[in-house]
Design a protein that fits this description.
EC 5.1.1.1, 7-stranded parallel β-sheet, Ala_racemase/Decarboxylase_C, isomerase
Length: 372
């Protein structure tokens, strides 16, 4: 491990202790509602298998992925009593693989419902599913027209064991956005109608930010993702979540440049005085976004240093003129994501969100897991 870490251009440390603490905190806010976990996109770039194992150890029994292939890859590593839900539903013609691999589809359309019902009739057994309803995102889930069809003919779900009705919040990170209440009221109204046919039907509504909107939004099962991984769940408020990731890039070389010299592609930065530049082995091929050019920062022994010039495919350049030269040797690590420069702070400088920073973290990083 140490030898491999020394070869890598950058080291990504994932603190599973912090992940576990974040899960316990969110479960505590949910009270009696269950806390699931979104581990799609390789657990937001942090490794779906080690992340899921840690969460299962903390009591999580509901894991959410986006695609069937993600569920298949995960299933062999997760106990059979832990549900894995596939939020995109089944690819056309692959419904039977959900049975083979012990996964549960989230059905988003009448076509998906019909295909799942057909499989249930073929197998002569009730098959579990979650049905998603669109309450305002116009993205996934039954449309209003499809919902009316369902409410007028419940036989279309004959043979389907509807475990949860589910919807998704569009603006939960902004607690004052009126769409939150609009979606909540719409979802509550739909549940009242559905429960006349399915008494005791459970519901899932809240993502990470939705957990912080209050108990009315919790229902039976929440599906946090980003907050588990340290992203702030409420816009404009201090984050209660622990930082889970630390990213450190390795210095390749340093050089002295004279006043007026340019750095990097397209000459976007020029030295206004003699300067020392460190080249670090991280670039946009590693998910260090090009939009961080001339505005990102790193830290060396707690000292903030600016990124200068454009982010390249494999490297960034830092102005380290005011850093102790003894810290600038080839192979030295500089902090790119750390307590002084959190995922959310990096995202703000890049003009994006913490989700994109995490899910962009590239495969060339040497990943190191810390656990209890």
């Amino acid at each position: 491990m140490l030898q491999e870490a020394g070869r890598a251009g950058a080291l990504l440390t994932i603190d599973l202790r912090a992940l576990r603490a974040n899960y316990r905190y969110l479960q505590g806010r949910l009270g009696k509602a269950a806390c699931g976990a979104a581990v799609k996109a390789d657990a937001y770039g942090l490794g779906a298998i080690p992340v899921s194992k840690a969460l299962v150890d903390e009591g999580c029994r509901h894991l959410f992925v986006a695609q069937l292939e993600e569920a298949i890859s995960l299933r062999a590593h997760i106990p059979s009593d832990v549900a894995i839900y596939v939020m995109h539903g089944s690819p056309v013609g692959y419904e039977a693989e959900f049975i083979e691999y012990g996964c549960t589809p989230v059905l988003n359309s009448l076509d998906q419902i019909a295909a799942w019902r057909k499989l249930a009739h073929t197998r002569k057994e009730n098959l579990p599913a979650v049905i998603q309803i669109d309450t305002g995102m116009a993205r996934m889930g039954l449309s209003q027209a499809e919902l009316v069809t369902w409410l007028n003919d419940f036989s279309i779900t004959e043979g389907i064991d509807v475990r949860y009705a589910m919807s998704h919040l569009a603006c939960a990170e902004d607690q004052l956005d009126p769409m939150n209440q609009m979606q909540l009221k719409g979802f509550q109204h739909l549940l009242e109608q559905l429960r006349q046919q399915y008494p005791g039907l459970k519901a899932s509504f809240s993502n990470s930010s939705g957990i912080f909107l209050g108990t009315d939004f919790h229902f039976d099962l929440a599906r946090p993702g980003a907050a588990l991984y340290g992203v702030a769940p409420v816009a404009g408020q201090a984050s209660p979540m622990h930082s889970v990731v630390q990213l450190q890039g390795r210095i390749i070389q340093t050089r002295e440049i004279p006043m007026g010299a340019s750095v990097g592609y397209s000459k976007t930065w020029r030295a206004t005085q003699p300067s020392k530049i460190a080249t670090v082995s991280v670039g946009y091929a590693d998910g260090w976004l090009r939009s961080l050019s001339n505005c990102g920062v790193a830290h060396i022994a707690g000292v903030e240093v600016p990124m200068v010039g454009n982010v390249s495919m494999d490297t960034i350049t830092l102005n380290v003129s005011h850093v102790d030269p003894q810290l600038l040797y080839p192979g030295a690590l500089v902090d790119l994501i750390c307590p002084n420069n959190t995922v959310d702070q990096v995202a703000k400088r890049a003009g994006t969100i913490g989700y994109e920073i995490l899910t962009s973290l590239g495969p060339r990083y040497q990943r190191h897991y810390i656990d209890a």
